[in-house]
Amino acid sequence: MKETAAPKKKTAQRMKDALERFMQILFLICGFIAIAFVLVVTVYLILSGLPAIREIGLVDFLFGQTWASSQEQFGILPLILTSVYGTAGAILLGVPVGFLTAIYLAKVAPPKVAAVIRPAVDLLAGIPSVVYGLVGMMVLVPAIRVAFDLPAGDSLLAAIVVLAVMILPSIISVSETALKAVPREYEEASLALGATELETYFRVSAPAAKSGIAAAVVLGVGRAIGEAMAILMVAGNVANMPSLFSSVKFLTTGIASELSYASGLQRDALFSIGLVLFLFIMLINVILNVFLKRSKED
Fold first, then answer.
1. Distance (Å, rounded) from C-alpha 203 to C-alpha 45?
2. Between the CA of residue 217 and those of 92, 205, 268, 287, what are the distances in Å?
3. Three-state secondary structure readout of 268-294
4. Among candidates 216, 274, 239, which has minimal Cα distance to 94?
5. Which CATH number fits domain 77-297: 3.40.50.970, 2.60.120.650, 1.10.3720.10, 3.10.300.10?
6. What is the pTM (predicted TM-score) of this model?
């Protein structure tokens, strides 16, 4: 019996080792596929975007203040500044609300209350962007027009408010997860030293979870800077230099609104806008990685 059991154990071990090797190879292939997708997108955008930049000129393209495709004027400085201002405004509005909500859900809210709020946050994440744009166009835009006595309410302000609402689910969910991951011993030590619960949450828990909170902010930035449809419906889609109460055009809406009928140099310029947008997102990721690395070292 012992002689029969030994070969069976060896066979089972060989099958287990073979399965381990297979899974390792499968994971490696999946990792290379993800890298390949990034490389394909990068190479495609570079090859598609550089011809227009060479023809228009890098300085004229990036710092030109007029985008008029009918006149073959392709300066995207208004689009860049609008995207930067709009994203920054959404972060200034959305991050404090999302961060405070995350602290409330993770540390303060009774379980029954948290059980009601969390599904609502998840529902916000699942609403299509076109629905945000529709509500903004029908409710927010007329409200801004009446409140500030403007000829039209589609403006940078409307875009900022819509983006701030859209980034809330990402900030709340990731920040709450990061706050819950903070060891309870940290908070107990703070309370034992005489700190109040609020002081503990803001001076101990939040700093300990800063890497996760930073990741939440970057996810919000990525959502805000990459949004197109909702912004197209509330911002007015006019390539003006950014002003809070004027119609504006973002980098994303510039592509979405013109790509369907663009041709020639105009189409190439839209691909160049995509390349600039891609570089913005890459820059944000690099800044995040540097920040997280310094946080771990500290």
1. 44
2. 10, 17, 32, 12
3. HHHHHHHHHHHHHHHHHHHHHHHHHHH
4. 216
5. 1.10.3720.10
6. 0.85
Smallest CA-to-CA distance from 288 within 230, 235, 220, 211 is with 211
**Are 163 and 90 within 8 A, CB to CB?**
yes
Q: Is the dihedral of CA 55, 59, 63, 65 positive or negative?
A: negative
Long-range contacts, stretch 122-128, CB < 8 angstroms, 24+ apart:
122/169, 122/173, 124/165, 124/168, 124/169, 125/169, 125/170, 125/173
| Distance between CA atoms of residues 138 and 192, nearest Å | 52
CA pseudo-torsion sign 37, 42, 43, 48: positive
Per-residue pLDDT tens digits of the chain, which is 298 residues long: 445 556 667 777 778 878 888 889 999 999 999 899 989 988 998 888 888 888 888 888 888 888 887 788 888 899 999 998 998 999 999 999 999 999 999 888 888 888 888 888 888 888 888 999 999 999 999 999 999 888 888 899 999 999 999 999 989 999 998 898 888 888 888 888 888 888 888 888 888 888 888 888 888 888 888 888 889 899 888 888 888 898 999 988 888 888 888 788 888 888 999 999 888 888 877 877 777 666 656 5
Beta-bridge partner residues of 73:
68
Q: Please, are residues 277 and 252 in contact by the beta-carbon 8 Å criterion?
A: yes
CB–CB of 213/175 below 8 Å? yes
For residue 95 the two structure tokens come to 């991050």
**C-alpha dihedral sign at 276, 163, 128, 178:** positive
Instruction: Locate 297 and state its tokens.
Output: 């070292």
How does DSSP classify residue 57? -
- Rounded to a whole number of angstroms, the distance between the first and last alpha carbons of the chain is 60
